[in-house]
Amino acid sequence: MTGPIAPVADSEPIDPRVRVGHVHLKAADLERSLAFYCGVLGFGLHGLIGNEAAFLAAGSYHHHLAINTWESQGGSPPPEGSTGLHHVAFVYPTRAALGDALRRLRAAAVQLTGASDHGGSEAIYLRDPDGNGVELYWDRPEEEWPRNPDGSLKMVSKPLDVEKLAAEGLSESSIQQG
């Protein structure tokens, strides 16, 4: 199939309550992935299937992220220019929580691949140990989102001040601990 995809005539829109339940990633080394997702990002380990699969979550949900080595043990990342997952995105509840995530990444010497202010959200981008793209972001309140004259969302991509973001995360962490 090439060219633009035409909308299907007479199709009904998807139910607006549909949401992403979880993301399932293939990994080369489960322990290395757990060290990153649990040790660096702070997800909780909610279950294991032997040494081949793990189920991780923020809070008590059964799993937001699953990682397995069923078809990928010892494998390498897909080559540039191939299809597949561009990135998985995790939404943080506040700017301070995102700043804390940035502080954790820095403490673990994880390199960012980008950082953007999208108007309605602020995001930092990185790669996990298997080369999967990861976006960590927070949404501004919807009333603050930039809009086009017709009221539609105005998509922007401006540089994000990561130093200011990291400082906010640090100050919020100090408040929570004190």
List keywords for this structure.
Signal recognition particle alu RNA binding heterodimer, srp9/1, alpha+beta, 4-stranded mixed beta sheet, 2,3-Dihydroxybiphenyl 1,2-Dioxygenase, domain 1, 2 domains, 178 residues, globular
Describe the protein:
With 178 residues, the chain is α+β, with helices and mostly antiparallel strands. The protein is built from 3 helices and 9 strands. The chain has 2 domains: 20-73, 2,3-Dihydroxybiphenyl 1,2-Dioxygenase, domain 1 (Roll), CATH 3.10.180.10; 86-178, Signal recognition particle alu RNA binding heterodimer, srp9/1, CATH 3.30.720. The protein has helices spanning 30-40, 95-107, 162-177; strands at 23-26, 44-49, 53-57, 65-68, 88-92, 112-117, 121-127, 133-139, 158-159. The strands form 2 sheets. Strands 5-8-7-6-9 form a 5-stranded mixed β-sheet, with helices on one face. It is globular, with a radius of gyration of 18 Å. The chain starts with 22 loop residues before the first strand and ends with a helix.
Summarize, please:
This protein is of the alpha+beta class and 178 residues long. Helix content is 22%, strand content 26%.
Furnish the topology, listing elements before pairings.
Blueprint: E1 23-26, H1 30-40, E2 44-49, E3 53-57, E4 65-68, E5 88-92, H2 95-107, E6 112-117, E7 121-127, E8 133-139, E9 158-159, H3 162-177
Parallel strand pairs: 1-4, 5-8
Antiparallel strand pairs: 2-3, 3-4, 6-7, 6-9, 7-8
